[in-house]
C-alpha cells in the first residue's frame, strides 16, 4: 500500500521531469523552417532556462505553506502551475506565451522539489525511506525519458497535451491520500495523525505514533531560524561545504546536457539519428539513477563524489576535444563519430553515481534537524540560479566561441571541483549526527586557530 501511495505522490516529480526534458525534442522544431512559432537561438536558450530561474522563487513560500497548511495541500497546489504551463504551450502562438508557460512550470518545479521529499520522507518507514527517496529521482528521469521517446514523433502541442495527463492524474489520485502524520502532530491533532498512520500502515501503529510524537515535540522545542545558518559556526561551515558541492554539481554541465541533448547530438556526424541517441541517453539515466543509492553506504560519500567529478571532467574534456576537431580539423576525426554518444553515456553514468544525488545526502547529514529545512531551501534556490546560468550561457558560449569551449569549461570546473572536495569535504559514511557535528566543530576550531596565528604573526 505504501509503495502505491508513494508512486501516486511522485507522479508530480515525473511531471517535473517532463518539463525538464521537453526542450530537447522541441527546440529543433522551434528553430526549424517548419516551426509555427519561429524561434531564434537566443530565444530558444530563454525557453530552456527561464523555467529553472523561476524554480528558485518558490522554495521558501512552499516550505512555509507546507508547514502552515500541510504537505499534501501544498503538493496539490504545486500541480496547478504545471497544468497552466502545458495548457499555455497547447494554445501558444508566440515565443512570449512559451516564456510564460515555462515560468509557470518553473514555479511548480520549485514547489515539488521542496515538498515532495518532505512528504515521502515522513510517510515512509525506516526500512524503505531510502528507496522512496530514490523513487523521486527515478520518476523524474522517467519523465525526461518520456520526452525523448515521444517528442520526436508528435508535434509540440500534442506532446504538451500528453504531458498534461500526468499532473491531472496526480491530482485525481493524490487527493485521496492521507496527510503526513508529522504535520498533524505538529498542531497536536493526535486523532487525525493516528487515522493518517493507520491508512499508511498495517498492524499495530501505537509505538510508531508515540515515537513520531516524541520526535515532533523535540523538533518544536529546538526551533531553528535562518540566522542559525549564518551565526552558528558549524552550520556556516556546513553551508559553505554544501554550496561548494552544489556548485560543482551544476557547473559540470548536466543541466545543459539533458536540456540540449538532441541539439548536441545533431552537431555530430553520427550515423544514428539524434533522437535515437537521446533515447539511449534517457534509458541510461533511468538505469543508473539508483546506482548511487546502492553504492553510497558501501563506498562512502566522498569517494563517490570524487570519482563522479573525475569521470564527468574527463568526459567533458573528451566531448569538447571531439567538437574542436570536428570544427577545425574535420578530416582527422574520421570514423570517430561514435565518440560523443559514448562519452555522454559514460558522463551520465559518472554523474549518476555521485554528483546527481549525493549532494542531497550531504545536506541531510551535515545540518541539525532544526535548520535542515532552511538549508534545503537555500540549496534549492542556489541550484535554481546555477542551473539557469548553465542552461542560458551554454547557448551563448556555443554561439560565440564554439560548443567545444562550453564543454572545456565544464571540464575545468569539474576538475577544480575535484580538488575542492578532496580538500574541504569530510566523509560522513557510517558516522552518527553527533560525530559529524563534532568533526565540524573541530574543523571550525582549527580554522579559527589558524586565523589567530596568522594575525599574531
Automatic annotation (TrEMBL):
CDD domains: MFS_GLUT6_8_Class3_like. It comes from the Eukaryota. It holds the Pfam family Sugar_tr. Its main location: membrane. Keywords: Cell membrane, Glycoprotein, Membrane, Signal, Sugar transport, Transmembrane, Transmembrane helix, Transport. The keyword Glycoprotein applies. One of its GO terms (cellular component) is plasma membrane. PROSITE patterns: MFS, SUGAR_TRANSPORT_1, SUGAR_TRANSPORT_2. Residues 1-17 form the signal peptide. It is found in: Cell membrane. It is a multi-pass membrane protein. SUPFAM superfamilies: MFS general substrate transporter. One of its GO terms (molecular function) is sugar transmembrane transporter activity. Residues 1-429 form the Major facilitator superfamily (MFS) profile domain. InterPro entries: MFS_dom, MFS_ERD6/Tret1-like, MFS_sugar_transport-like, MFS_trans_sf, MFS_Trehalose_Transporter, Sugar/inositol_transpt, Sugar_transporter_CS. The chain crosses the membrane at residues 45-66, 73-92, 98-119, 131-154, 160-185, 238-259, 279-297, 304-325, 337-361, 373-394, 406-425. The keyword Membrane applies. Belongs to the major facilitator superfamily. Sugar transporter (TC 2.A.1.1) family. This is Facilitated trehalose transporter Tret1. It comes from Papilio xuthus (Asian swallowtail butterfly).
Amino acid at each position: 500500500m505504501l509503495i502505491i501511495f508513494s508512486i501516486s505522490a511522485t507522479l508530480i516529480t515525473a511531471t517535473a521531469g517532463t518539463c525538464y526534458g521537453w526542450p530537447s525534442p522541441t527546440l529543433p522544431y522551434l528553430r526549424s523552417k517548419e516551426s509555427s512559432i519561429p524561434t531564434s537561438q537566443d530565444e530558444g536558450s530563454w525557453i530552456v532556462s527561464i523555467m529553472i530561474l523561476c524554480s528558485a522563487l518558490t522554495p521558501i513560500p512552499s516550505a512555509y505553506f507546507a508547514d502552515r497548511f500541510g504537505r499534501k495541500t501544498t503538493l496539490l497546489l504545486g500541480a496547478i502551475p504545471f497544468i497552466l504551463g502545458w495548457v499555455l504551450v497547447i494554445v501558444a502562438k508566440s515565443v512570449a506565451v512559451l516564456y510564460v508557460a515555462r515560468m509557470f512550470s518553473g514555479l511548480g518545479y520549485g514547489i515539488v522539489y521542496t515538498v515532495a521529499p518532505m512528504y515521502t520522507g515522513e510517510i515512509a518507514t525506516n526500512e524503505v525511506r531510502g528507496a522512496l527517496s530514490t523513487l523521486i529521482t527515478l520518476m523524474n528521469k522517467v519523465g525526461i525519458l518520456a520526452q525523448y521517446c515521444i517528442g520526436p514523433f508528435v508535434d509540440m502541442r500534442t506532446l504538451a497535451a500528453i504531458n498534461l495527463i500526468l499532473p491531472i492524474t496526480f491530482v485525481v489520485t493524490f487527493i485521496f491520500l492521507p496527510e503526513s502524520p508529522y504535520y498533524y502532530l505538529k498542531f497536536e491533532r493526535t486523532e487525525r495523525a493516528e487515522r493518517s498512520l493507520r491508512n499508511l500502515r498495517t498492524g499495530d501503529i501505537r509505538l510508531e505514533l508515540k515515537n513520531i510524537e516524541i520526535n515532533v515535540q523535540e523538533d518544536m522545542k529546538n526551533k531553528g531560524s535562518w540566522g542559525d545558518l549564518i551565526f552558528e559556526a558549524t552550520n556556516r561551515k556546513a553551508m559553505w561545504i554544501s554550496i561548494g558541492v552544489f556548485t560543482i554539481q551544476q557547473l559540470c554541465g548536466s543541466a545543459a546536457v539533458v536540456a540540449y541533448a538532441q541539439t548536441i547530438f545533431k552537431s555530430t556526424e553520427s550515423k544514428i539519428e539524434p533522437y535515437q541517441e537521446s533515447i539511449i541517453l534517457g534509458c541510461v539515466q533511468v538505469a543508473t539513477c539508483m546506482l548511487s543509492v546502492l553504492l553510497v553506504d558501501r563506498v562512502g560519500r566522498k569517494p563517490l563524489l570524487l570519482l563522479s567529478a573525475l569521470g564527468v571532467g574527463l568526459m567533458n574534456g573528451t566531448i569538447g576535444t571531439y567538437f574542436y576537431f570536428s570544427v577545425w580539423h574535420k578530416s582527422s576525426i574520421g570514423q570517430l563519430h561514435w565518440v560523443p554518444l559514448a562519452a555522454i553515456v559514460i558522463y551520465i553514468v559518472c554523474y549518476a553515481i555521485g554528483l546527481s544525488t549525493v549532494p542531497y545526502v550531504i545536506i541531510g547529514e551535515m545540518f541539525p534537524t532544526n535548520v535542515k529545512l532552511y538549508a534545503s531551501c537555500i540549496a534549492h534556490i542556489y541550484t535554481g540560479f546555477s542551473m539557469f546560468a548553465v542552461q542560458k550561457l551554454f547557448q551563448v558560449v556555443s554561439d560565440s566561441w564554439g560548443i567545444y569551449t562550453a564543454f572545456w569549461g565544464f571540464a575545468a570546473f569539474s576538475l577544480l571541483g575535484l580538488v575542492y572536495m578532496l580538500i574541504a569535504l569530510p566523509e560522513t559514511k557510517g558516522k552518527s549526527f553527533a560525530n559529524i557535528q563534532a568533526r565540524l566543530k573541530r574543523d571550525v576550531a582549527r580554522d579559527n586557530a589558524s586565523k589567530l596565528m596568522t594575525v599574531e604573526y
